[in-house]
Structures are given as structure tokens and as C-alpha cells.
């Protein structure tokens, strides 16, 4: 029980100490030139937070919700402390914002340039990523069904698909820009190519996942190809398909952003990143990255949520 | 995009069986041939307008077959025919001395060197992180969620920042690109290694305990050997994305050298054949890297006395 007591005493103390230091560091006299006492306090907080976190993560709680809460709190506190260190070191040591802006400066910039960020988000995420994602995943799925029907096609396509997924597919971006112009269709085309092969390979693998006994059962029901596909093989393949959908959600955003490095109209997340880096306004670049991070995690989270709803029967979700 | 793909599966199939009609060789070959055929047809269709226009501007009247032939030999085609790319590859790889800036080997070497340094850094970081995560529970519960959720973020987007920030404190050249590669490729290694280090079942761990083996001994004698298959699976993924990181890392610097620079320069000047050649160069490099990791895996397995399944 000592670990729990240590954690329950130390965690509020560390939190209060961090807030105090945050207030301290933004005072005009302290920012940029704090004394050794200040850094001593930061190091002490650091050590205390390590003890507190290890206490928290070794907690054994009786009730299940409390345990869930603790296992959620540990990474959140850890992440918050990293941001705290970033802020304190950057502001305290007076790191020039050309090198590394403080999180508070990034947040201010984010809030101040909402309209620009919204336009970039619509251009890159809504137009390029979502369109390309839907088309690439859809095409991969259809070709996988086709390849599953025609064994010759499957034996030919599967090695190729595996091979292509190891290639730097992103390199086709300049070609797509040349073919489809500067606007979003060229980015969507890159996303289509990048998402197609993971979907193809995973779906084909998923379609073979149904067991022999289940298939025999379907046959003894006199179920035809389509009934077996819809009632047995596709549901069994769902975990594989969602795996591809999750991989693709990240790939799609990367593809769209990197493709914009090769030429865009004057809007878009990749365009903004490359132009603001050249102008050395790194707080805007970080704001854009924060947007990309939020969009990426939200996209991934949405797919994961749908997966939970669609594959509730799967052993990994049963409790 | 896929014609170069014949190299690896073809090789594997030739080694594995002497009956090509039973393995995947024949289907793969047929599909590759179909893709090449489609490619020629697409090149014909996509280059037709430009070729016909060029003849018209020159005031020459040509018949349709002549235009069709000319679509295969354009200097800046919309889609170069496969043989044009092969000739360009031969010209820039074999005919040009490797020290020249026009040589693809020179650019491939620039990219390869930062790929390998980044791959080495990322592998070391990934393994150390995995060993720490397995042994320190605090890290497992606080760091692992962040490592995993960091992958839902388009990490490549921060490549320009790394290049510019390191450049402004005087670090340029190979290292910034390698850091991007390392940052990209540590993840599959960490995930795979954590899984692998935890893969020995409780009975084997109990046996180590009855030998009164220390944690370090358990790590060296049991956990690390058991994690090797997972490690190599991670390494294969990591080496491929390490190359992607190096290529993308070459884009924001204005691209002095490297395969990414060739792509960017090609897109600036509309040199489509150069882009395609660089793309094929990158594909060949990627397949060589993955094949090398596979070879090392086989050698390590053999020297450790693993039975092939």
C-alpha cells in the first residue's frame, strides 16, 4: 500500500509545483535568465514526478473502473510533464523561437490563425485525404474480392502487392502532380496508390481466414458463393480489413502532405509547412503539425471506434 | 509502378521449385507482362496529343503509324515507355562514371548512406527502448501509449522542421536526414521487440528462475534469442520506411543530391524520364535493402541452429 500512498501524496504536490514553476517562468524577470534555484526546483520536480509516476503505475486497484482510470492517467500525466519540461526549458533558457517555439506560443499561434488552418484542413484532409482514402480502399477491396474469385489472379497479385508495400510509393507524387495538376486531385491520386496495396493484401489474407469447418457448414446449408461471402467470409475478414483501414488512415495523411511538397495551389497543410519553414516562422509550422496530429489521431480513432462496433464479437474485444 | 516487381518474387520462385506452373512464378510473370503491355498502351494514348502537336508545330504532316512510333521516343513524355526508362537507367547507372553528379549511382549512394545511418540509429534506439519497456513497468505504462499514438500522427510532416532547425545550428548534410529515418523506423522495431521479448512462455521463464538466473541472464539467454524472429520482421519494415524517410528528408533542403533531389529536380524541369528512373532506382534500392535483411535473417537463423519450418 506504500506505493499508493506515495503516489496519492506526491502527485498533487508535483502538479502544484509544476503550476507554480509555469507561473514563475513567465514572469518578465525570470524568463530567459532564471537562477540556479529555479533549475534546482525543476530537477527536483522531475525526480518527484518519476517517483510519483512509478507509484501510480504500480498501483493495484480493486475495482475495474478505477484501474482503467489509473492506466489512463499515467500516460496523460507523463505526456503533460513532457510538455511542461518543453515549455519551462524553452522559456526559461530563452531558446529563440526560430529553433524551438514554446508550446504556449504554438497554442497562441494556433488560436490566432484558425481561418488559415481551417482552409488548409479542408484542402488537404477533406478533399485530398478523404477522397483518395475512399477510392484507394474501395478499389483495393474490389480487386481483392476479384482476386479471391480467380486464384490465378491472386497468385500473381499477392507477391506483387507485398513487394510494392515495401517500395517508396510516395515517390510517385511528382508524376501525379504532372498528370493531375497542382490542385487536390493529384494528392488524392497519390493517396489512392498508397492505400490500394495494403487494402488488397490484407483483404485477400482476411478472405482466407474462415476455417474449414465453418465453410463445410455453409456448404451443408447449400449456401452459394455470395451467401458464403456475405455471411461467413467477409465478417471473418473484418479484423484484417479494419487493420488495413487503420494503417491507411495514417498513410493517407502522410501521402497528401508530402505530395504537397511537390507543388500546390497556395493552400494546404503540406504547402503551409514548406512555406513557413522557409520563412522561419516555426510556431506556424508547429501549429500546422498540431493540426495534422489532431486530424490523424481523430481519423485513426474514428476507424478504431467503427471497428469496435463492427467486430464486437472478436475475442480481442470480448471481456 | 509494379513492373520492377518481378525481381524478388521471381528469384524466390526459381529457388523454391523447378515446376513453375505450380508456384507463383507463372501468374506473377503473366501479370507483370500484362502491366507492361498496359503501360505501352497508356504511353501511346497519353503521349499522342503532345506528339501530334509537336509535329503540327513543326509543320510536318505525319501518318498515324508514324505518330504512334514517335510517342515511344519523346524527350519529355507524359508517360515514358518502359524501354525509355530502362535506357535512362542504363545511361545513368552504367555509362556515367559514379563520381559524376549525373550518375544515378552517386545519388543513390547519398540516399543510401543516410538511410543506413538512420536505420542503425533507429534500430539501436528501438531495441534499447524495447528492453527498457519490458523491464521497467513505469515506462511500459507511461511511454508505450505515446509511442503507439505517435504513429497516428503524420510524422513525415515534421521532416522540414528537423532539417531547418538542425541546419540553423550548423548540422547539415547526412545527419538531419538520418534522424528523420531513425525517427520513422524505430517504431516497428520497438513494437516487434516488446512482443518478442515477452514471447517466452511462463514455463520457460520459470525454468530460468529455478536456475536462479538474474534478470540480465534471462535477457541474454532467453528473451533476446526468442525475440529474433520478431526483430527481423520489424527490421524489414523499418529498412523500407527508413529509405522513405531519407528520400523525403531530401525534399525541403532544396535538394542538392540524392534520389529525392532527383525526383524534385525532375518535377521542376519536367524531366519525366528522370523522375521515373529515380523512382525505379529507389524501388530497386528498397528491394535490395529488404532482401539483405532477409539474407542476414537466414544467416543468423542458421548460425543459431534454427530449424526451418
From TrEMBL, chain A:
<feature type="transmembrane region" description="Helical">
    <location>
        <begin position="251"/>
        <end position="273"/>
    </location>
</feature>
<keyword id="KW-0813">Transport</keyword>
<feature type="transmembrane region" description="Helical">
    <location>
        <begin position="159"/>
        <end position="182"/>
    </location>
</feature>
<dbReference type="GO" id="GO:0055085">
    <property type="term" value="P:transmembrane transport"/>
</dbReference>
<keyword id="KW-0812">Transmembrane</keyword>
<feature type="transmembrane region" description="Helical">
    <location>
        <begin position="188"/>
        <end position="211"/>
    </location>
</feature>
<feature type="transmembrane region" description="Helical">
    <location>
        <begin position="223"/>
        <end position="245"/>
    </location>
</feature>
<feature type="transmembrane region" description="Helical">
    <location>
        <begin position="37"/>
        <end position="57"/>
    </location>
</feature>
<feature type="transmembrane region" description="Helical">
    <location>
        <begin position="69"/>
        <end position="95"/>
    </location>
</feature>
<feature type="transmembrane region" description="Helical">
    <location>
        <begin position="125"/>
        <end position="147"/>
    </location>
</feature>
<keyword id="KW-0472">Membrane</keyword>
<protein>
    <submittedName>
        <fullName>ABC transporter permease</fullName>
    </submittedName>
</protein>
<feature type="transmembrane region" description="Helical">
    <location>
        <begin position="7"/>
        <end position="25"/>
    </location>
</feature>
<dbReference type="InterPro" id="IPR000515">
    <property type="entry name" value="MetI-like"/>
</dbReference>
<keyword id="KW-1133">Transmembrane helix</keyword>
<keyword id="KW-1003">Cell membrane</keyword>
<dbReference type="Pfam" id="PF00528">
    <property type="entry name" value="BPD_transp_1"/>
</dbReference>
<dbReference type="GO" id="GO:0005886">
    <property type="term" value="C:plasma membrane"/>
</dbReference>
<feature type="transmembrane region" description="Helical">
    <location>
        <begin position="285"/>
        <end position="306"/>
    </location>
</feature>
<feature type="domain" description="ABC transmembrane type-1">
    <location>
        <begin position="140"/>
        <end position="308"/>
    </location>
</feature>
<dbReference type="InterPro" id="IPR035906">
    <property type="entry name" value="MetI-like_sf"/>
</dbReference>
TrEMBL record, chain B:
<feature type="transmembrane region" description="Helical">
    <location>
        <begin position="228"/>
        <end position="249"/>
    </location>
</feature>
<feature type="transmembrane region" description="Helical">
    <location>
        <begin position="273"/>
        <end position="296"/>
    </location>
</feature>
<keyword id="KW-1133">Transmembrane helix</keyword>
<comment type="similarity">
    <text>Belongs to the binding-protein-dependent transport system permease family.</text>
</comment>
<keyword id="KW-1003">Cell membrane</keyword>
<feature type="transmembrane region" description="Helical">
    <location>
        <begin position="106"/>
        <end position="134"/>
    </location>
</feature>
<feature type="transmembrane region" description="Helical">
    <location>
        <begin position="155"/>
        <end position="174"/>
    </location>
</feature>
<keyword id="KW-0813">Transport</keyword>
<feature type="transmembrane region" description="Helical">
    <location>
        <begin position="21"/>
        <end position="42"/>
    </location>
</feature>
<dbReference type="GO" id="GO:0005886">
    <property type="term" value="C:plasma membrane"/>
</dbReference>
<feature type="transmembrane region" description="Helical">
    <location>
        <begin position="180"/>
        <end position="198"/>
    </location>
</feature>
<keyword id="KW-0812">Transmembrane</keyword>
<dbReference type="GO" id="GO:0055085">
    <property type="term" value="P:transmembrane transport"/>
</dbReference>
<feature type="domain" description="ABC transmembrane type-1">
    <location>
        <begin position="108"/>
        <end position="297"/>
    </location>
</feature>
<dbReference type="Pfam" id="PF00528">
    <property type="entry name" value="BPD_transp_1"/>
</dbReference>
<protein>
    <submittedName>
        <fullName>ABC transporter permease</fullName>
    </submittedName>
</protein>
<keyword id="KW-0472">Membrane</keyword>
<dbReference type="InterPro" id="IPR035906">
    <property type="entry name" value="MetI-like_sf"/>
</dbReference>
<dbReference type="InterPro" id="IPR000515">
    <property type="entry name" value="MetI-like"/>
</dbReference>
